[in-house]
Design brief:
The chain is an alpha/beta fold. It has 2 domains: 31-306, TIM Barrel, CATH 3.20.20; 323-414, no CATH class. The protein contains 15 helices and 10 strands.
Length: 417
């Protein structure tokens, strides 16, 4: 039988995500800000990594094209100060394309160690100085607007005088009153802050809230006459399971920089997952020149450093992300491979092309498998798939309630000897 002419790949998937799209949904020049070594370490179940593992993560971030990273609160302890200084020197010595940032309260004592590190390391750093702005936080802390304005101005002034770039962070922005935010943002701009960081600190926001808040912030910046000189950051948590979509929505609505952590590790249920932000923007065609094959390494090294277990069904990096043993699914992948079309095999039963991110489709053998699974498994390991071998493995699989391990398949094959 003559081979049929394969369809062009563009005709094999109708993409409703692109249907009726008008232009680029996210502008060029957006930035990614990694919070793994700051907000990630605030998760109550992680361990603070040894310094060498922190240094490894900086190299992974830089290799992925992440633009900046918050690497800690140097004012919190001597160890934090020493680690932050050493990480700065690592970035400088290896000329990593990664901006360095520190977090601190709107307290002068928190800003001074950042200035000292910048001077000792001989490099610029960004200051993310934060204070709660929502009415519920003000009530709990016995703060009023005048106190917040005064403390914030003092902290910003110290950083600006030292020549550091200042990002003013309003904690719990997504539950703050517009008149309070307007006053705080105008003060920050007047005192020289170059970024306003909008925080969904408790994971309260929906995409509508993201759109409304960013539009409001842009109007305040415009009203202050700052124009394009003041950038907007989005920092989101995942309490409602919306952190990822909110991060992408924030970029579409006009945020210049979006925050995330490896595997979404952070306080409570965590933050927006950096690897999933990058993955989705890549699949949207917005990171054409960014090679993301190191995402797996980035995630596994972060998990190892923080003592974190990656769920087996986690997108992209979970053990089962590209693994199937179902007969129908496996057969389709195998047929695609038999056509000699790697592109087809990587997409026929996967919305995420494994090869694009340094992984591959995997076919196992289990109680829902057919002969095609066994044939593939054997050939993939250089074993001739004779009828007797295929039948022996299938019989073993049908008698189990789980997918066979490699050891169990070899035991089934050995039973023929």
């Amino acid at each position: 039988m003559a081979e049929t002419e394969p369809l062009p790949h563009d005709d094999l998937i109708f993409d409703w995500n692109e249907f009726d799209r008008r232009g680029r949904i996210i502008p060029k020049g957006i930035e990614f800000f990694d919070e793994t070594l700051r907000d990630g370490l605030q998760n109550p179940s992680v361990t603070d990594p040894p310094l060498e593992k922190k240094l490894e993560l900086l190299h992974e971030m830089a290799a992925l094209g992440i633009h900046a990273a918050d690497i800690g609160l140097p004012g919190s302890s001597k160890r934090a100060f020493d680690d932050c200084l050493r990480m700065c020197r690592e970035v400088s010595d290896h000329r990593l394309p990664l901006k360095v940032a520190f977090a601190g309260r709107t307290v002068v004592a928190d800003i001074l160690p950042m200035i000292e590190i910048s001077q000792q390391a001989g490099m610029p750093i960004e200051v993310y100085t934060f204070i709660g702005s929502s009415p519920i936080r003000q009530f709990a802390e016995d703060w009023d607007l005048d106190l917040i304005l005064r403390r914030s101005a003092e902290a910003i002034d110290v950083g600006v005088k030292a020549g550091l770039e200042i990002a003013y962070v309003t904690e719990d922005t997504t539950r703050s009153r517009p008149e309070v935010l307007s006053a705080l943002f105008k003060m920050a701009i007047d005192h020289g802050a170059s970024r306003l960081c909008l925080c969904d600190t408790v994971g309260h926001s929906t995409p509508d809230g993201v759109r409304n808040l960013i539009a409001f912030t842009k109007s305040v910046i415009a009203g202050a006459g700052a124009g394009a000189s003041v950038k907007i950051d989005w920092h989101g948590h995942n309490d409602r399971g919306l952190a990822l979509v909110n991060a992408i929505w924030a970029l579409e609505c006009g945020a210049h920089r979006v925050h995330g952590t490896a595997l979404g590790i952070g306080e409570r249920v965590g933050n927006a997952a950096m690897e999933l932000i990058l993955l989705n923007l890549k699949l949207l065609g917005l990171l054409e020149d960014q090679d993301l094959k190191r995402l797996l390494s980035y995630c596994t090294k972060a998990a190892d450093a923080l003592g974190w277990s990656i769920p087996i069904n986690y997108p992209l990096v979970g053990r089962d992300a590209f693994r199937t043993s179902t007969g129908v699914h496996a057969a389709a992948i195998i047929k695609a491979k038999n056509k000699g079309d790697a592109w087809l095999a990587d997409r026929v039963y996967s919305g995420v092309p494994a090869g694009m991110f340094g992984r591959e489709q995997e076919i196992g053998v289990g109680y829902m498998s057919g002969a095609s699974n066994v044939n593939f498994w054997l050939r993939h390991r250089g074993i001739e798939p004779t009828p007797a071998r295929v039948e022996a493995v299938l019989q073993r699989a049908k008698g189990q309630q789980h997918n066979l391990t490699d050891e169990e398949i070899h035991e089934a094959l050995a039973s023929l000897d």
